[in-house]
Amino acid sequence: MSREFWDSCFAEKGFAYGTEPNDFLVSQKHLLKPGLKALAVADGEGRNGVWLAQQGLDVLSVDQSAVGLAKARELAAQRGVSIRTEQTDLTTWKWPENEFDVVAAIFIHFPSAVRAQMHARMVAALKPGGVLILEAFMPKQLEYKTGGPQELDRLYTADMLRNDFRVGERLLLEEVITGLNEGPYHRGQSAVVRLVLRKSN
């Protein structure tokens, strides 16, 4: 999806995916502690990055939409926390290496041409012992039509993630049908794949 697409989406009134954090990210709260450094990938309007900041983490929120990131900063101010933001195209961004304790990748769907490369950069961005928390839609999501890409090439399976993330310790890898209630664009029964990976020390 282009920057113009996301700028237009995030320019709509309200928050496209709501202001509350993703439920799966919240379920991994036991992995977090104040003072950790977190990267919120493709964080849009900031619901997940702001929540991480509310847990006491030092958060960098990156997205290609300046409109979304402006709303993320506003949400952070409303919640009494601060986040750093950077507007960038993740496929050309100079990803940091060995810098973050947590990388949150919630509903970001790279096309197959760059997917494995982007996933490798997420792991490289983690410090040894850091954790990646990822949730994405599966191909079955096309049947539900409750959010996510409508292109098969951008949807993930557990086997894809198992292949992309061969290093480190997989703490969780599952495919589930769940209910989403994340603003007007993610609402209803949905087919998702989830991964929690700890980078090797």
Concise summary:
By secondary structure, the protein is of the alpha/beta class. The chain has helices at residues 3-10, 23-27, 47-54, 66-79, 112-125, 141-144, 158-164; strands at residues 37-41, 58-63, 84-87, 100-106, 126-137, 169-182, 186-198. The termini are far apart.
The number of strands is: 7
Q: Count up the helices.
A: 7
The span between the termini is: 35 Å
- Helical content, roughly? 25-40%
* Major sheet size, sense and barrel closure: 7 strands, mixed
Mean pLDDT figure: 92
Strand order across the biggest sheet? 3-2-1-4-5-7-6
Instruction: Give the low-confidence spans.
Output: none
Overall 3D shape: globular
Beta content: 25-35%
Using only C-alpha atoms, the radius of gyration works out to 15 Å
- How would you classify the helix and strand content by structural class? alpha/beta
- Following the backbone from N to C, one meets helices and strands in this order, namely HHEHEHEEHEHHEE
Structural key phrases:
globular; 7 helices; 30% strand; alpha/beta
Description:
The chain is of the alpha/beta class and 201 residues long. It has 7 helices and 7 strands, in the order H-H-E-H-E-H-E-E-H-E-H-H-E-E. A 7-stranded mixed β-sheet has the order 3-2-1-4-5-7-6. It is globular. It starts with a helix and ends with a strand.
